[in-house]
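Page 37, continued from 36.
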């Protein structure tokens, strides 16, 4: 079964003009469109498939500050507040709640790293609690195991991946914005060196501003415009189990497996960082820039197959704007599940939390997690094409920081005071070397 996803309505007619066109209906794209619409702009959101159907509905649902890289932490903190405010502003339910995130470990090195992060977090006003062995063992009593220590981050939480992006899309519609599903953006019109329109499969929308929040498709889209955006994806597989496990932590991480309570009372199970690398032409193109990233994480990665080639999201091909593009041939990236990972994840979860033996596997799915060479997203206007704003490469963190990223994008468009310092995210940095700058997460 694919990842669960709520559906939303599509606006029947494509507008001929818009103040802003947002390309991509994942969590970052919908929040950008939402904040722009709230500021009175005429916004059209175009999505080649369904709102939230790719990685925005295939993640764990964690919205965390804990263990964030210093460059992302301010946006993480702002995003937690924005998740809460969104529900108050709109009445829409994303499933967000500050349930706290719980980490357990028997590794002295891991615990030392968490303690160092706690000390850093204190300096920027973020609260996290290191747990002694007795405290970790007591709080983690569902495991039936003694632990050397742990962490509890009380202000962090989770949202529902199946509901979140669709809920934001509904809010956009209520505010007068338009949402267009099964409407791929094929490319851009440019006049006098400046963006003048977005060409979709159903017609052209005249606009002076376009935001590319295209997830794993962003780099191949940029290539059509002569813009070099280094990006590579890995295929991650996770599963869910039915309700029935009783009182387990809402969100628990260990090095063996991570467990998250779902809205229906079931749980999502995953192994952090474990994934397959499906070779693609784009990966070969950017291989040198990604060497530091893969060198740091090679223990969690395994070779994949040819699915990445077939999916077309990391192609080096050029396409015409008057013919179907790879996005129309692959409306939704729904890659093959790695059955070995699913079996290992389930076995580890049953060993960690015996109460899960009362449940059954209800679904399993995979998704492509796109990353930048330094593990930090690229957000900002492209200098060579005024009016074109990139917002991609969220490196597996996009769901939790989606509200903050969307708000920052709206700030950039409108010239308002940015919600966080935009400089660490600007895509210009990819013109230099990423060696030695890989994010800590």
């Amino acid at each position: 079964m694919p990842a669960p996803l709520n559906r939303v309505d599509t606006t029947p007619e494509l507008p001929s003009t818009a103040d802003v066109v947002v390309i991509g209906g994942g969590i970052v794209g919908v929040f950008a469109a939402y904040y722009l619409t709230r500021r009175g702009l005429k916004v059209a959101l175009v999505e080649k498939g369904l709102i939230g159907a790719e990685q925005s509905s295939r993640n764990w649902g964690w919205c965390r500050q804990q263990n964030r890289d210093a460059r992302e932490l301010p946006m993480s903190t702002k995003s937690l507040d924005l998740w809460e405010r969104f529900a108050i502003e709109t009445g829409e339910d994303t499933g967000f709640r500050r349930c706290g995130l719980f980490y357990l470990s028997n590794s002295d090195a891991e615990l030392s790293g968490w303690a160092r992060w706690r000390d850093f977090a204190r300096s920027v006003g973020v609260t996290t609690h290191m747990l002694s062995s007795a405290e970790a063992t007591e709080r983690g009593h569902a495991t039936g195991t003694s632990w050397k220590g742990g962490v509890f981050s009380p202000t962090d939480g989770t949202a529902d991946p199946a509901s979140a992006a669709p809920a934001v899309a509904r809010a956009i519609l209520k505010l007068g914005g338009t949402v267009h599903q099964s409407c791929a953006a094929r490319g851009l019109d440019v006049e006098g060196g400046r963006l003048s329109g977005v060409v979709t499969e159903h017609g052209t929308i005249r606009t002076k501003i376009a935001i590319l929040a295209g997830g794993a498709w962003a780099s191949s889209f940029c290539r059509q415009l002569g813009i070099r955006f280094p990006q590579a994806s890995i295929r991650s597989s996770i599963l869910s189990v039915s309700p029935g496990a009783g009182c387990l932590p809402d969100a628990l991480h260990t090095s063996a497996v991570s467990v998250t309570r779902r809205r229906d009372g079931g749980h999502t199970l995953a192994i952090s960082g474990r994934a397959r690398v499906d070779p693609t032409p784009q990966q070969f193109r950017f291989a040198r820039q990604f060497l530091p990233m893969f060198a740091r994480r090679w223990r969690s990665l395994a070779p994949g197959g040819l699915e990445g080639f077939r999916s077309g999201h990391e192609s080096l091909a050029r396409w015409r704007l008057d013919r179907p593009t790879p996005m129309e041939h692959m409306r939704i990236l729904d890659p093959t599940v790695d059955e070995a990972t699913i079996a290992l994840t389930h076995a580890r979860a049953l060993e960690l939390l015996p109460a899960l033996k009362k449940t059954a596997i209800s679904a399993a799915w995979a998704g492509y997690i796109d990353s930048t060479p330094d593990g930090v997203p690229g957000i900002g206007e492209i200098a060579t094409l005024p009016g074109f704003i990139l917002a991609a490469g969220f490196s597996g963190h996009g769901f939790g920081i989606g509200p903050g990223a969307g708000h920052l994008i709206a700030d950039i468009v409108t010239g308002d005071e940015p919600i966080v310092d935009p400089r660490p995210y600007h895509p210009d940095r990819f013109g230099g070397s990423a060696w030695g700058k890989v994010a800590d997460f």
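DSSP finds twelve helices and 21 strands in the chain. Flag for discussion at group meeting. The mean pLDDT is 95.
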